[in-house]
């Protein structure tokens, strides 16, 4: 069976833009489309998470236009990114997906669920927050410095993604070993232009706007909100805010974890997602 490590990179053409994607897992049923974090590409997912999810369903990973192996121009707003991903689903002939958005991908997933509601059967928002909420207008300086480094390395990922405890950092080191395992057909790193465009999108999404929070009441897909208990990048309280505003939402908070709790607890997170999707 094809796995995270062996799935070939394919390309879907939309209006002259080639979207790089990988598709693997158990065919049949509703596929799970996974949208990546700031600067993330196909190889930045944890294979321990994606392979566990792929045991029961088909998984689709994709690079946004202008990011890593996808061609085209990177979007400077979340709304534009959402339209790009909707065009990608149209190109693959997908009439319904389950949608998982992590971090920036969670911003995009919220917009997709609002502007193309019939596309999203179930919605999973991981390590993310709502448009206009308090504490969402960019990142604190130390996090921004590590996240926006010209050539981020393992130390940067450990700092922004994992809690600053011995136990969480040790799990982070294990994750670094897993996500670097693929040695064939690795995705290209994302460019500095993509970094800057995506940070524009992060900042625009986070401009304080109390009225924008009411958008969440329009999400009709059953929603699962997942978060670490001490996210240094997107405040954990933002997940509780989303859970209170999205009509059919449930929330799960993981202990001793920060932004990348889903790479710290890949087995548990996969089980929680599988139970929700079933």
From TrEMBL:
The keyword Hydrolase applies. It comes from the Bacteria. Coiled coil: none annotated. Residues 31-264 form the AB hydrolase-1 domain. Keywords: Hydrolase. The keyword Hydrolase applies. GO terms for molecular function: hydrolase activity. Transmembrane segments: none annotated. It holds the Pfam family Abhydrolase_1. InterPro entries: AB_hydrolase_1, AB_hydrolase_fold, AB_hydrolase_sf. This is Alpha/beta hydrolase. The lineage of its organism: Bacteria, Bacillati, Actinomycetota, Actinomycetes, Streptosporangiales.
């Amino acid at each position: 069976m094809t796995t995270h490590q062996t799935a070939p990179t394919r390309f879907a053409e939309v209006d002259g833009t080639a979207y790089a994607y990988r598709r693997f897992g158990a065919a049949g049923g509703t596929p799970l489309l996974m949208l990546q974090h700031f600067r993330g590409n196909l190889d930045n997912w944890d294979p321990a998470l994606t392979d566990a999810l792929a045991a029961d369903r088909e998984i689709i990973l994709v690079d946004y236009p202008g990011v890593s192996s996808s061609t085209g121009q990177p979007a400077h707003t979340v709304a534009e990114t959402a339209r790009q991903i909707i065009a990608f689903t149209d190109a693959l002939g997908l009439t319904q997906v389950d949608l998982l958005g992590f971090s920036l991908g969670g911003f995009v997933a919220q917009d997709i669920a609002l502007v193309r509601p019939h596309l999203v059967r179930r919605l999973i928002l991981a390590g993310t927050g709502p448009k206009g909420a308090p504490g969402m207008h960019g990142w604190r300086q130390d996090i921004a410095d590590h996240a926006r480094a010209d050539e981020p390395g393992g130390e940067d990922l450990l700092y922004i993604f994992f809690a600053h405890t011995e136990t969480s950092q040790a799990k982070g080191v294990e994750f670094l070993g897993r996500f670097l395992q693929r040695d064939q057909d690795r995705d290209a790193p994302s460019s500095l232009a993509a970094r800057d465009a995506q940070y524009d999108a992060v900042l625009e999404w986070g401009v304080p706007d109390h009225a924008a929070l009411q958008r969440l009441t329009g999400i009709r897909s059953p929603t699962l909100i997942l978060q670490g208990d001490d996210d240094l990048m997107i405040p954990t309280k933002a997940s509780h805010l989303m859970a209170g505003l999205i009509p059919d939402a449930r929330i799960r908070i993981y202990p001793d974890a920060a932004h990348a709790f889903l790479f710290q607890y890949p087995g548990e997170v996969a089980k929680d997602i599988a139970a929700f999707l079933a």
